[in-house]
Amino acid sequence: MDGTMGWRIADQEWRKGPWTPAEDKLLSDYVALHGEGRWSSVAGCSGLKRNGKSCRLRWVNYLRPGLKKGQLTPQEEGIIIELHALWGNKWSTIARYLPGRTDNEIKNYWRTHFKKQEKPSKNKKNRKFEDHNSYTEDQMVKGTINNTKLDESEENNIGMIIEQTHVMLQETATNFTSPMATGVQHQQNPCMLAQDVASWWDTVADDGLWSGFMWNQDHDHHPNQAMVEQPFTPCF
DNA sequence: AAAAGTACCAACCGCCGGTAG
DNA sequence: ACTACCGGCGGTTGGTACTTT
Question: Is A226 exposed, middle or buried (0-12, 13-18, 19+ CB in 10 A)?
Answer without folding.
Answer: exposed
